[in-house]
Design a protein that fits this description.
The protein has 483 residues and is α/β, with parallel strands linked by helices. It folds into two domains: 4-41 and 265-466, Enolpyruvate transferase domain (UDP-n-acetylglucosamine1-carboxyvinyl-transferase, Chain), CATH 3.65.10; 45-262, Alpha-beta prism (UDP-n-acetylglucosamine1-carboxyvinyl-transferase, Chain). The chain has helices at residues 45-56, 71-82, 120-130, 151-159, 196-205, 224-235, 270-280, 300-306, 340-348, 369-379, 409-421, 440-449, 463-466; strands at residues 26-27, 35-40, 62-65, 86-90, 99-103, 112-115, 134-140, 163-165, 174-179, 185-189, 212-216, 241-242, 248-251, 260-262, 282-287, 310-314, 317-321, 330-332, 354-357, 383-387, 390-394, 401-403, 425-427. The structure holds shikimate-3-phosphate and phosphoenolpyruvate. The site of phosphoenolpyruvate has 7 residues, from α3.
Length: 483
């Protein structure tokens, strides 16, 4: 099996501070025929980082089984450790790395700096936690992170009684001056540019002295399933959270229970693999699909048929089979903006035009995704027009070329999807996929070139495509396939 880079429990692929990985260009594999692939994916970023935060704030040790090991979760672990939380790696059932056992600190410590990288979940979830620490906590991140909106986090914490020094900025860097306690109470915010402002406050709210009564008053609230995920994670830890009306939440002050949690595979990261079946033809199966989930990636089962795919499900296996062509779509994707890059890539290869709206907020993701998708598809001969809150895509015959990724893992996924159908697409900085799926290129090459559940040896992948990846150590998967 190809988990060799993660087979030693204390191995951290990016070092403790999870710096940016190197940025190799990558020749996107061209599909040679119809796919018949079975893919097993690592854990969900959104679930892993929520459960890490809640475990750090809990009343006893918790265990995360099969968590995601990626840049975003490594940054979260490093940040919580620097606040005094103990996080131990222990062997677990996951194919992609060890479990984590999280032991909360008696008292969270300040006097530290938190590197957010480019992780929205770190920059929006940890300032409320750091306000519960004793001493100053400085937040900073990648150059691109300094462009992401943070005003709502800063102003809401100030309204709840927290002292923040932002030197007049409404972005990173800033310093939270924790005093060990947060008054809490009522606050109204505008979360129209990211649901993470809501989730960040809700995750810590039970630990505020007066709890939290949170209201959103912006003109829209994107990514509602991610807020539902936060609510479900809190409820599972016996936090009393209620939503009396849309855009309003209240949390009683109290303990957050410890938990032993199985982390589901990342269903948003399933998007490019399932998209591949539409683009290349044939079928792709994802194993381990949960029967019930709060992940927005579950919506792919309804979204992909709109493009002409057939979706079948047998126990925990979801199979997507491409149709004779690809249909254009008209979609409001406001609930699932993080699925947009993969869906736009499919639309660029469709037989008729598409319009995807409700995603103005993804201009504030890892990069301005509307501009990035339009620029890169048009560079390859496409015709994509930016709308205020979405994209209009007129499919055109595309040609090869360099696909820029802007440090955005999902831009890399989109380039890989297009490269399946278009000769000589080279994805710049494929390593940016390490943000949420360090195994992306290995799994993708396995899907295209043969056995794909991580069981294929990198040595059977054509050299030009494999050259950017370290050789696996050894081992075999559960079916006995050689590594
Ligand atoms: O809370 C979360 O885990 C996330 C919320 C969403 O953010 P936005 O509401 O900013 O889109 C999503 O796009 C992001 O990938 C993860
Ligand atoms: C928007 C995303 O990430 P983040 O958690 O950094 O906001 C994403 O993964 O698509």
């Amino acid at each position: 099996m190809l988990i060799s880079r993660y087979s030693t429990p204390d191995f951290n692929p990016y070092g403790d501070a999870a710096p940016l990985p190197p940025n190799p260009d990558w020749s996107a594999p061209r599909a040679r025929g119809r796919l018949t692939a079975v893919v097993s994916l690592p854990g969900s970023k959104s679930l892993t980082n929520r459960e890490l935060v809640l475990s750090a704030l809990a009343d006893a040790p918790s265990r995360l089984r099969s968590p995601l090991h990626s840049r975003d979760t490594t940054l979260m672990v490093a940040a919580l450790r620097s606040l005094g939380v103990t996080i131990d790696e222990v062997a677990g059932p996951g194919r992609f790395g060890p479990d984590w056992v999280i032991t909360p600190a008696d008292e969270l410590l300040g006097s530290t700096t938190i590197d957010c990288g480019l992780a929205g979940t770190v920059m929006r979830f940890l300032p409320p936690v750091s306000a519960l620490a004793l001493g100053p906590v400085m937040f900073d991140g990648d150059e691109g992170a300094r462009k992401r909106p943070m005003a709502t986090t800063i102003s809401s914490l100030r309204a709840l009684g927290v002292d923040i020094d932002s030197d007049g900025r409404s972005t990173l860097p800033f310093t939270v001056h924790g005093t060990g306690r947060v008054r809490g109470g009522a606050v109204t915010i505008d979360a129209s540019s990211s649901s993470q402002f809501v989730s960040g406050l809700l995750l810590a709210g039970a630990r505020f002295t007066d709890g939290l009564r949170l209201a959103h008053n912006g003109d829209r609230l994107p990514s509602m399933p991610h807020i539902e995920m936060t609510i479900a994670a809190l409820a599972a830890r016996a936090v009393n959270i209620e939503s009396a009306a849309a855009g309003e939440w209240s949390i009683d002050p109290g303990a957050i229970s410890a938990r032993d949690v199985d982390i589901e595979p990342d269903l948003s990261n399933a998007a490019p693999f399932l998209a591949a079946a539409l683009v290349a033809g044939g079928s792709v199966t994802i194993v381990g699909w949960p029967s019930a989930t709060t992940q927005v990636g579950d919506d792919l089962l309804d979204l992909l048929p709109l493009f002409g795919a057939e979706v079948t499900r047998e126990a925990d296996r979801v199979t997507v089979t491409g149709g004779p062509g690809i249909l254009g779509v008209t979609l409001d994707l406001s609930t699932g903006g993080e699925l947009a890059p993969a869906l736009v890539a499919i639309a660029a290869l469709a037989d008729s035009p598409s319009t995807i709206t409700g995603i103005g907020h993804i201009r504030h993701h890892e990069t301005d995704r509307l501009a990035a998708l339009a620029t890169e598809i048009n560079r390859l001969g496409g015709s994509v027009t930016e709308l205020e809150d979405g994209l209009h895509i007129e499919p055109r015959p595309l040609h090869g070329g360099l696909w820029q990724t802007y440090h955005d893992h999902r831009m890399a996924h989109a380039g890989a999807i297009i490269g399946l159908a278009v000769d000589e697409v080279v994805v710049e900085n494929i390593a940016t996929t390490a943000k949420t799926l360090p195994e992306f290129a290995e799994l993708w090459q396995g899907m295209v070139y043969g056995a794909s559940d991580g069981s294929q040896s990198i040595s059977s992948i054509p050299v030009a495509a494999a050259s950017h990846f370290p050789a696996p150590v050894s081992g075999s998967d559960e079916s006995g396939a050689p590594a």
